[in-house]
Design goal:
The chain has 5 helices and 8 strands. It is an alpha+beta fold. It has a 4-stranded antiparallel sheet. A hairpin with a 5-residue loop joins strand 3 and strand 4.
């Protein structure tokens, strides 16, 4: 007698159940995570402003060049360390995060020190919203139905910003956001018994997707 062993898929808590089909799987762009989740650029700009202010004040007060240079170094060192630490965290997050879409659910696996797997059945999803960035990456957030609240801190960095009272999981820093949005829209429509083709996602100011048709659109 031959025994078949069903192998698991990376990013999922176990093998796919019989009849469930894998549609898409991918990882976030760590550079986009560094910019939009860990805000490395904003931190660098902040320290840059501090340095410029320090130099301006010291020059106005007539301090010697050596003292001015020393003050600049004291700001550059912590600024560089902060940016390096945030960049490293973004890289680690990118390496340890896997997004999975099947014909029944979305699965998020993330966590640097402790891996967490979050299953989001299509039945629990009320809406989806896509936000694209100038670098070509994008964030695809999903709104969960009432009674299925997930802690904001437990989701971070895969939580939609500023949605603290009603946290929304997010497929963050997607390299091909519109392609993934179309796949998710088609899967949600098929799951809901819809036969019409979901409209393509376009990067507009503040589009959104919601309603029973569960078609994917873009939203900020």
């Amino acid at each position: 007698m031959t025994t078949r062993v069903r192998r698991g898929i990376a990013g999922l808590p176990g093998p796919l159940p019989a009849g469930e089909r894998l549609i898409w799987q991918g990882m976030p762009d760590w550079r986009s995570l560094a910019r939009h989740a860990y805000h490395v650029r904003k931190v660098a700009v902040y320290f840059g402003i501090l340095i410029a202010w320090s130099v301006t004040v010291d020059l106005h007060d007539g301090h010697p060049p050596a003292q001015i240079l020393g003050a600049v170094v004291w700001l550059i060192v912590p600024g560089a360390c902060a940016c390096a630490l945030l960049t490293a965290l973004a890289w680690l997050s990118g390496r340890t995060t896997i997004y999975t879409i099947t014909d029944r659910r979305i699965c998020l696996r993330y966590g640097i020190a402790l891996s967490v797997t979050l299953n989001l059945p299509f039945a629990a999803i009320e809406a989806a919203a896509l936000k694209t960035h100038a670098d070509g990456t994008g964030d695809l957030a999903v709104k969960i139905g009432e009674g299925r609240r997930i802690a904001y801190l437990a989701l971070w960095p895969l939580a939609r910003p500023w949605h603290i009272r009603s946290p929304e999981p997010m497929l963050r820093a997607l390299p091909e956001p519109q392609h993934v949005a179309r796949l998710l829209g088609a899967a949600l429509a098929a799951s809901a018994g819809q036969t019409e083709r979901p409209r393509p996602v376009e990067p507009v100011a503040r589009p959104e997707l919601s309603g029973a048709t569960a078609r994917t659109a873009a939203a900020g």
